[in-house]
Each structure stands twice: as C-alpha cells, then as structure tokens.
Fold this sequence. Notes:
about 50% helix
Amino acid sequence: MVLTVNKVCPETNGQGFLVNLTDWNEDVAKQLAEHNAIELTDAHWEIILFIRRYYLQFKHLPNARVFTKAVAREFGEEKGNSRYLHRLFPDGPLKYACKLAGLPKPPTCL
C-alpha cells in the first residue's frame, strides 16, 4: 500500500502498518482508514487515540483481552466489550485500532 498524505509518503509494511511511529498524524489515520474501508467516527477516534496513549505509556501492545479490559476501565463497560469494539473494527478491534493509530501489528494478531 502506498500512502500519500500532504505530499509525504509514509512507509508501510506488507500488511499496511506504518513502519515509523513518528510518521503518524490524523491525516495518515484517515487515509489508512480509507484503505481499510473504515469510515471514522468520534467513537473510532476515541479508541485510536486511547491505544496510542496506551502504547506510548507502557511501550508495548496488550493482547485482545487486556485491550478490552483497558478500554472498559477508561470508558466504561458499554464500550469495553467485544461487541462494541467489533462494531467499530469488524475485522479485528485490536489489529485495526493499532493499524489506524500508526502502531506496530500486535504480536497476538494474525
């Protein structure tokens, strides 16, 4: 996948994840979402920005269960559950939240 955002081409790997965390910004996230057929809403942004903060704070990515529990602690049980997160990211909440947040692919995701 080739991204071009404001005349800059951030590098992605073969699965569409950014190679450099520092290349990320909201315009990059929007283009990644478009390439993955995801129409971003405020609910998506809430999760995307959350997982970025998590990664920058803890220097690692959680597994799916820990991710869901962390979302529940931050936003409440109505958002911290698999059904809600799958509505936002049907093909894998953790994987696609990380991808759109410019983070590495979680080691637990296929």
